[in-house]
Amino acid sequence: MKSETDADTPEAPRPHRPGMLAKLRSNFLTGIVIIAPIGLTLYLVWWAAGLIDGWVLPWVPQQYQPSQYIGFDVRGIGVLIFLVFAVIVGWIGKGLIGRSFIHWGERLVDRMPVVRSLYSGLKQIAETVLSQSDKNFEKACLVEYPRRGIWAIAFVSTDAKHELRAKVPVEERVLSVFLPTTPNPTSGFLLFVPAKDVIFLDMSVEDAAKLVISAGLVYPNGKAPKKPPQPAPVAAQ
Question: Which of 72, 115, 145, 172 could be bridged to 152 by S-S, CB 3.0 to 4.6 A?
Fold first, then answer.
C-alpha cells in the first residue's frame, strides 16, 4: 500500500514527445540547411561560367568553336579560354615590349577626358582587389557609429598619413578605418578615427567579416581567446 506521503507527492510530468509532423518539419529544415549552401554555390558557379562563355565564345572563330568538334556546347570552355588568354597577356605584360605597349596605351587614354577617368578608377579597383601584395586589413575593431553609444564592427586599414593626418584636428594617432555594410561587406564607409576611440577585437578579420555578412546570426568567436601559457614558477631552493 502507498503511504500518505507517496499519495501527496505529485507525479513528474512525462516528457512531451514530438509528433510525426514535428519530426518531418525538423528533418526538412535540417535538409534545407545542408542543401541550400551547396545548391547556391553550384548555381553561382554554373551561372558565372555561362556568363563568361557568353563573353568569350563570340570572339572565337566559328571553325574553332568547341561545338564544331563535339557536336554540342560545353559550359566552361570559355572560362578555360579566358584563363589561358589572361596568362598569356600577363606573361607578355611583364616583358619589356609588353610594358612599353601598355605605357603607350595609357598615354593615349590620358588624352581622352571621359575615358581617362573611367580607366583610372577601374585600374585602381582592380589593383586593390587583385593585388598579390601582403596589404590587408590589420585588425577588426569597434567604433561608435553612426552616433555615440551605438557600436559597429570595422576594419583597421592603416595609420592616416600626409595631408589627411595633418588636417585632422587631434594630436593623438589617427587610424583609417573601413566600416562595411551588411550583408554586403564590399561597400561601406571610410572613416578616420582617433586611436583612442577604437576598440580592437581579439577575433580575426575573417571571423568579423562572417559576423557582418550574417547580420549577427553567425558568431564565430564564441569562446574567449586562448592566453599564452604562463611559465611554471621556479621552486625555491
Answer: 145
pLDDT in tens, 80-128: 888 998 899 888 888 888 888 888 888 888 888 888 888 888 877 776 6
Per-residue pLDDT tens digits for 134-169: 556 778 999 999 888 899 999 998 888 888 888 888
The CA–CA distances, whole Å, from 211 to 81, 170, 197, 227 equal: 37, 31, 21, 23
- Cell 589593383 found at: 127
Q: Which three cell numbers stand for residue 84?
A: 589561358
Is residue 62 situated within a structural domain? no
- Full domain range(s) for residue 178: 139-213
| CA-wise closest residue to 166 among 174, 157, 158 | 174
Query: 105 in a domain, yes or no?
Result: no
**Long-range pairs of 48-53 with CB within 8 A, sequence gap ≥ 24:** 49/75, 49/76, 49/78, 49/79, 50/75, 52/78, 52/79, 52/82, 53/77, 53/78, 53/79
Specify the number of domains making up the chain.
1
Find out whether 208 and 153 touch, Cβ atoms under 8 Å: yes
Q: Which residue stretches of the chain are H helix?
A: 4-8, 20-56, 67-70, 77-93, 96-109, 113-130, 162-167, 205-213
Tell me if 124 is assigned to some domain: no
Residue at 185 is within a domain: yes
In the block, residue with C-alpha cell 529544415: 29
